Amino acid sequence: MSTSSSADVANLDDATTPAPTSSRRNMLRLAGAAAIGATAAAVVGTQGASANIGDPMELGNAGAGGAIAGTAHQSTAQTRYDWLAVPAGVGFLYEAVGATIVTNSQAEYPSALGGFTQAPNSPTGVYGRTNQAGGNGVAGKATAATGTGVRGEGATGVVATGVSTGLSASATAGTGIVSTTSDAGSYAVLAFGVGGGVFGVGGPYAIAAGATTRANLYLQPNNNFLFGTTPKTVPTTRTDDHKAGEVECVDGDLWFCTVSGTPGTWRRLTGNGAGTGFNSGFNAVTPGRLYDSRGMTPAGPLAANATRDIILRDRVDATNYAVNAANYVPAGATALAVNVTVVNTVGSGFLSVNPKADNTVHAATINWSASGQILNNGVNITLGGDREVTVIAGGSSGSQTDFVIDVTGYYL
Question: Is the Cβ–Cβ distance between 89 and 111 less than 8 Å?
């Protein structure tokens, strides 16, 4: 049987398959060469494809850097470069470059796989993508107790976007994600997500803020970042849905959502407030008139066994009833501190002030015992609807009264 004169080792750049030989020894040698060639083809591609891509690919000496076996080529439209060294500590390097090559003598993070770029049209060092349910575009795992699964450094340490969760990290002994930034105006972790930017699940603490030279937690009080200059509105005036447990900071006021809804039920916990005093959701305000049956709509005295729905929202002038402060009681207020006054009383009776649409007498807000009396009582009343209440009159047959409601504070 005749023998072939082909080379014993395949040319990796050409990724060609050598001709068969009649020698058993040569056949084994060729099989090994073919395997090497197939691997190189899978990694590097054919010579023609490599020349058109324009992004050199190198195989280095794992962990030590050093000389490169062979020459990497760029496209014919650029200058041909001979690569001199892989950064020490990198086992495999893929680097996209522009018009020049900058040789790195030492990798910042010695690694088995390195992706470097200095090409403006290829600004990402490593990119991972998957279309599989439950898959991971990029996965990092550290099994040592002090290891780090994924580490990000830069003006922004980690940027994460997601439909349901922007960033998910777990660690059994070490740290799921370590992200640092040396710029005081930057963010170590910046997460975006339709469902949520960062979601934490843990034992004692789902999310814990550790040592810091300033504050453990910062809530952006306005929209001067990402969402332009449009100011935030208080949660009680919004039209989107919210969940119980949400916390929000608006212009220095801290809000907490107690009941889910659109926009849900919110309570202001602390902050600057709008009045002269502020404590645990209560705003003390300069006393102001909200309603007077002697000149406001609906007008006239309220007779026994009748009800009246009124809005306690705007402050009015006590003499001509003109509005002089709209929304003196802000949207979202849940209760008021008021003085309820009865005037021009007839007979004997009482008034009961309930949240709107509650027509049951639970307790008397104020009582009168004779005609012609002027009496007042300082009480807290609960609001319903959009700052509305239902006033119920009771008493002897033919009894009636005008009444006035003045506010001294409100609860959010």
Answer: yes
Q: What is the CATH number of domain 282-411?
A: 2.60.120
Q: Per residue in 321-339, pLDDT tens?
A: 999 999 999 988 889 999 9
Q: How many CB atoms lie within 10 A of CB 345?
A: 23
356 and 385 Cβ atoms separated by less than 8 Å: yes
| DSSP letters spanning 165-220 | -SB----SSSEEEEEE-S-TTSEEEEEEESS-SB----SS-SS-----SS-S----
Domain boundaries, the chain: 214-272, 282-411
* Burial 72-90, CB ≥16 within 10 A → b, else e: bbbeeeeeeeebebbbbbb
- Global pTM value: 0.47
Return the DSSP state at 18: P
Please list the residues that pair with 384 across neighbouring strands: 388
pLDDT tens across 113-165, in order?
A: 777 776 777 788 888 888 888 888 888 888 887 788 888 887 777 787 777 77
* C-alpha span between 364 and 20 (Å, rounded): 107
